[in-house]
Design goal:
This protein is mainly β. The protein is built from 4 helices and 28 strands. The protein has helices at residues 18-41, 194-200, 294-301, 303-315, and strands at residues 63-65, 70-72, 83-86, 91-95, 100-105, 114-120, 125-130, 136-140, 144-148, 154-158, 160-161, 164-165, 169-174, 180-184, 205-211, 216-224, 227-232, 238-243, 248-253, 262-266, 271-278, 283-291, 325-331, 336-342, 348-354, 357-362, 368-372, 379-380. A 6-stranded mixed sheet has the order 21-22-23-24-1-28, with no helix packed on it. The radius of gyration is 26 Å and the shape is globular. It starts with 17 loop residues before the first helix and ends with a strand.
């Protein structure tokens, strides 16, 4: 018989497992263990939100436009957070991240708009409105509530209430009697750290009033979930304020038997509301930083997910969860009318209708977005 071809001197075959085990240890066990340890040691401790108040069908508008594209002042308007229109002078005022309150001359041709630096507050101007004496009232997140005369003189009417300094002065409006109403989005976190207020889940926001005749600042409503935009109803009987985290806008009654009480105006919004503006034609324009995404819904429901997001924010950067920023138009009763948005946009912070154009501000983008509503209207939606 022929000899076997297998050599009798061949070494015995052995199975090496150190490679896979090493990979498993260094790339699975060790990272997971480190992450769990970091989670346990991190002091950030989010709380449960009143999630039952967000139960129900999300509002939808009967008409939509999902394309917003015309830009004004690219690179000349760093993060124009809010927009206020002076119809007498035909200019838009906006506050930018470089501290300048800027003026944009509105022309028939959007491409001919002229931008000028007007007044630098030395802080970070956010919300602003034209006052009864043609002054510009500014909510400066670093300075407080400011009043700027037409000559450019800056005054500081208020920077605290009940002994608590404003940390994130946000949005003002002025009543016909001269009373100024505004919000402090958070009494704990400033603008730079505002995401921590949202992730933490505690209500640090306040709605306040400032009376120029008595120079008194009052807290009207406290314990708000990131208080944001404010607008006074046309008949002056109540104002409307936004709570970004709770995706709602509420009424605060200024007159009559209900004075001092709070009621719902619109809830279960399809986005996180920022500023709110009235166009004088029966519509409120509510800016959305983002639509309601699955990731935000889960984060709101589960505090441990917000803690994970907080840890990511602290050490490596939070994942981008925002999309479809835009504006949502509702009528005087809070009923949805139209929704303008764009999948490529996020952190839209204000929307104002001037003539046939819609202008949008942003807390991050270096421009104002403009849309011709006659050429590009919101169209009836089948859903």
């Amino acid at each position: 018989m022929p000899e076997s071809t297998k050599s009798r001197d061949s070494p015995p075959t052995t199975t090496t497992t150190s490679g896979p085990l090493t990979f498993l240890f260094f790339f699975v066990v060790l990272p997971v263990g480190a992450a769990l340890l970091l989670y346990r040691l991190d002091s950030f401790d989010p709380v449960h939100l009143p999630i039952h108040e967000l139960a129900g069908l999300v509002l939808t508008a009967p008409a939509r436009n999902s394309r917003l594209c015309w830009l004004i002042g690219v690179r000349a308007l760093p993060a124009p957070e809010d927009l206020a229109f002076d119809s007498k002078e035909g200019v838009i005022y906006t506050g930018c991240t470089d501290g300048w309150v800027k003026r944009i001359t509105v022309n028939e041709s959007v491409s001919d708009s002229v931008i000028e630096n007007w007044v630098n507050t030395g802080g970070r101007p956010l919300g602003l409105v034209i006052g009864n004496d043609n002054q510009v009232v500014v909510a400066d997140t670093e300075k407080g509530l400011l009043s700027i005369s037409k000559e450019g003189v800056v005054e500081l009417p208020s920077d605290k209430a009940e002994g608590v300094k404003f940390k994130l002065t946000d949005c003002p409006d002025v009543a016909k009697d001269g009373m100024i109403y505004f919000t402090d989005a958070s009494s704990k976190y400033n603008l730079k750290d505002h995401i921590w207020d949202i992730l933490e889940g505690n209500p640090h926001g306040r709605l306040m009033s400032y009376d120029p005749s008595t120079k008194e600042t009052k807290v009207l409503v406290r314990d708000l979930y990131f208080a944001n935009g404010v607008v006074i109803y046309p008949d002056q009987n109540f104002l409307i304020y936004c709570e970004s985290v709770m995706r709602r806008c509420r009424k605060y009654h200024l007159q009559g038997e209900k004075k001092g009480s709070v009621e719902e105006f619109v809830k279960l919004l399809p986005g996180l509301p920022d500023n709110i503006r009235y166009d004088g034609e029966g519509l409120y324009w509510i800016a959305f930083a983002s639509e309601v995404t699955t990731s935000w819904n889960l984060a709101q429901r589960y505090p441990f997910l917000r803690k994970i997001l907080g840890i990511l924010e602290r050490y490596v950067g939070r994942p981008h969860m925002e999309k479809n920023g835009g504006v949502f138009a509702v009528d005087l009763e809070g009923k949805p009318v139209a929704h303008y948005y764009d999948a490529s946009l996020s952190f839209i912070s204000s929307g104002i209708k001037i003539g046939k154009h819609l202008y949008l501000g942003s807390i991050v983008s270096p421009y104002i977005i403009c849309l011709n509503l006659e050429k590009y209207p919101a169209l009836p939606s089948s859903t």
